[in-house]
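Review session, final week

We close the course with one last complete record, chosen because it touches almost every idea we covered. It is Non-alpha nicotinic acetylcholine receptor subunit, a protein from Elysia marginata with 172 residues. Go through it on your own first, then we will talk.
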Amino acid sequence: MARNGQSSYAKVIGAVAVILLTAPQPGHAGTYQNATSLLDTLLTRSGYNAQVRPLLNQDDTLYVYLLFELLSIVEVNDVTQSFICNGFMGIFWHDQCSVDVQTVQAFSHSFRCHRPFKATNILHPVLFFYFVLLIIIIVVVGELVVVVVVVVVVVVVVLVVVVVAVVVKLYK
């Protein structure tokens, strides 16, 4: 029996699991010329237009999926009705109009086209209603747990509004 209560057999299994999970995965890193030729083939020569919804039939619905993982709320300012938070956000949709990557480059298994957001494209909603609700809950209940839950709900609602505004702005 080891000093901390684990057997040496359990430690060996744990070490093997860590090694297997962190073992290098096969991959391919292309050159700058490969990346530019792939982008040229996918976006320029194919006639791709980023201002048109990426659907073959424009009457169909484009489903946009939002993934947000809140890491922390850094600051909430009631006076300016603003907050600062840290998290990961991803926006995903299926692009029917892009060229198939497998036919362009045999080694490519996935392709992501990143479009940076400008500060002017992001909606800045007025959060007065949400902070009034927060103040009412603090006065009535006075529990810290409720305050944290309300702040998290406010952050999620605002982020959904921002993402919808950005997606609408991208396809106008």
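Two points worth writing down before the exam:
The CA atoms of residues 121 and 166 lie 6 Å apart.
The chain has one domain: 8-170.
Good luck, everyone.
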